[in-house]
Structures are given as C-alpha cells and as structure tokens.
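Thread: quick sanity check before group meeting

JM: Hey all, I'm pulling together slides for Thursday and realized we never actually wrote out the predicted structure for the chain we discussed last week. Dropping the sequence here so it's in one place. If anyone has concerns about the input, flag it before I start.
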Amino acid sequence: MKKTYLRMAGILLGAMLVLNACDDTPVNGDDDDVVGKDEVIVDGNIKADETWTSDKTWVLAGRIAVEDGATLTIEPGTLIKGQAGTGPNATALLIAQGATLMAEGEPDAPIIFTSIADEITPEQIATGDFKSPNLDLTTNGYWGGLLVMGKAPISVSDGNTAQIEGIPSTDPNGRYGGSDPNDNSGVLKYIS
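JM (edit): ok, ran it. Output follows.
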C-alpha cells in the first residue's frame, strides 16, 4: 500500500512538472496572454517592473495602467498596438501617479504606438520602414493613446488633482496633478 501511494505521488509530481514545462507563462504574472512567439496580449495592469521587447508586438486589450511603484521599460523599435474601444472602454496605456515609463527609442528604431487596425510589423520597423501599409496619416480615433499622470501642479478650481476625462472616477489610476514640481514619470524619446 505504501509503495502504491509513493508511486502515485511520483506520477502526479512528474505530470505537474511536464505541465509546468509546457506552460506559456504570461509576462506580468497572470495578466498577459502569450498568443504566439511574436505577439503578447496585455490584459491586466502592470504592478511590477516589466520590459517590453522589440521582438514581439504588444497588444493592449483595454485600459492598461502601469501602477504606482512599477516601471515599464520599452525597448527601441518596439511595436505597441491598442485594440478598438471608445469612451470609458477606450484602450489606453496609463502611466499612473508614482509609476515610471522608460520609452527610449532611437532615430533608426523608434517605439511605435498604434492601433490593432494598423498592419505595420516589427519586421518593417527593423528595416527602417515606419509607415503604416494600410492607414492614412490623418486616420485617428482608433484607440485612446498613451496617458501620463504626474504629480506636478496643475490648474484646477478645486484642490490640486483631477480625474482625466474618459477614465471612470472609480479608477484611481486616472488621477493626475499634485504639488510636486519635480515629479518625474520617466522618459519618452523617439516615439510615434
């Protein structure tokens, strides 16, 4: 009986190891879905330091916030696409108060934020072709964009902070303003 129990425990342990070895572990815990080796769906807030690499397309599946205390680093030449959405459901990347975005593109490898409707690929960017193959330069309104919430003073009639338009007041990551003129939310360099 004891040998059978130990054998069963060994089989279960072995099965668990095999299943874990085959697991596509998301980038930021259980919030991202690895769709393929070239695309990552980001569907949850970023709560710890994370790096987005240029060898993948990063697809925002909704309003994603880099939360207080976390740093999102985006490599030069990285492609970020937002899924469609409007109003309070608009897809956006929010850099919350106390969070940091380090997006330092280069002249020959800019970081490109665009819509999922854009057919541009990381391979195009790598060859120096930064133009959308299917969207006109004047096309807009496909996604909410990149929003940086800082703690620097702003001009508001009541208090020293405000909630950004379009983000529900129940989302604390939509607050901006404050009393710190030296607040620093990171770097944006060579982005499109």
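AS: nice. The first strand starts at residue 32 and ends at 36. Residues 1-31 have pLDDT under 50 and may be disordered.
JM: adding both to the slides.
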